[in-house]
Amino acid sequence: MADNTPADDVDVTKDWQATQGQEAAAKRLRIFAVLSWMVAIGGEIAGIVLLKRHTFDDGNLPLLIGLLVGIAIFAIAGSLMWKAANKHDPARKSDKVKFFVQNQLGAIIALIAFLPLIVLIFMDKDMDPKNKKIAGGVGVVLAVVATMMGVSFDPPSVEQYTEDMNSCAAQIKANQPTTACSPEVAAQAKDIAEDSATVVEASGQDVVYWIAPENGAKRSATPHVFHLCKDVSPLRGKVVNSGSVTKAYAENANRITKQIPMEQRQCGFASATTNENAAAPAG
pTM of the entire structure? Predict the structure, then answer.
């Protein structure tokens, strides 16, 4: 019989959340991005100090252009790493201020790293006019390039990843080509779909049980295992939540029990092997 259930009923999670691996990768990339931006701004400060000391009044144009190029390189490098981090751990589009700042921070930093220095170059009355024009022009071009490289024209969002994961899950469960499975959601979607199928096969329903998040939190700080029923040994004496594998993953219970046969017996679910042996005629 064909499955006519709407795609909305086979989603992986109502609210996509980054895995611990994705959060760690994003944190690492953001640290390196900030360090790169600090170097860029440090280059700008060095340029301003040298301007104030009249280092470029009668020459040293290559040094000034070198500083501008260095600022651009580190500003762009920081922006690329920041964008990569946002793919691992995006902001919510519904939080408009955070979404804008997080996704356009590279462009903002590029402007900060260039504008004061460029303004001072054009305002410097002691610098050779020809050198001023060359350095200022190079600075403007590099500032535009660095700023454009920092702009996120189609930034990812939690809402987008949730939609992608829902579509990905539906395709996996229907054995269709996984055209909706982006790298950021595919692995998690596949894991949840496979675990859901395993649970249904073992218990006949997509309902699992896991240790509730600590102190009423929405998501556990550490990963937990989910089980076939609340009466299994690991859950005795614990505060337990229940729901679909989808809900379990959302609360960071993202590991299926390795003791399925034992839990089938403890929970009163007959395994497929038991059913086959019971149905087999006596030899």
Answer: 0.66
Radius of gyration of the chain (CA): 28
The tens-digit pLDDT sequence of the chain (283 residues) is: 333 333 334 334 456 777 778 889 999 999 999 999 999 999 999 999 999 888 888 888 999 999 999 999 999 999 999 999 999 999 988 889 999 999 999 999 999 999 999 999 999 888 888 888 999 999 999 999 999 999 999 898 888 887 777 777 667 766 676 666 776 677 677 777 788 888 888 888 889 999 988 887 877 878 889 999 988 888 988 889 998 887 887 787 878 888 889 888 888 886 544 444 444 444 4
| HEC assignment per residue over the chain | CCCCCCHHHHCCCCCCCCCHHHHHHHHHHHHHHHHHHHHHHHHHHHHHHHHHCCCCCCCCHHHHHHHHHHHHHHHHHHHHHHHHHHHHCCCCCCCHHHHHHHHHHHHHHHHHHHHHHHHHHHHCCCCCHHHHHHHHHHHHHHHHHHHHHHCCCCCCCHHHHHHHHHHHHHHHHCCCCCCCCCHHHHHHHHHHHHHHHHHHHHHCCCCEEEECCHHHCCCCCCCEEEECCCCCHHHCCCCEEEECHHHHHHCCEEEECCCHHHHHHHHCCCCHHHHHHHHCCCC
User: Residue ranges per domain, the chain?
Assistant: 20-156, 186-268
Tokens of 200: 């249904």
Name which of 71, 74, 75, 68 is nearest 137 in CA terms: 68
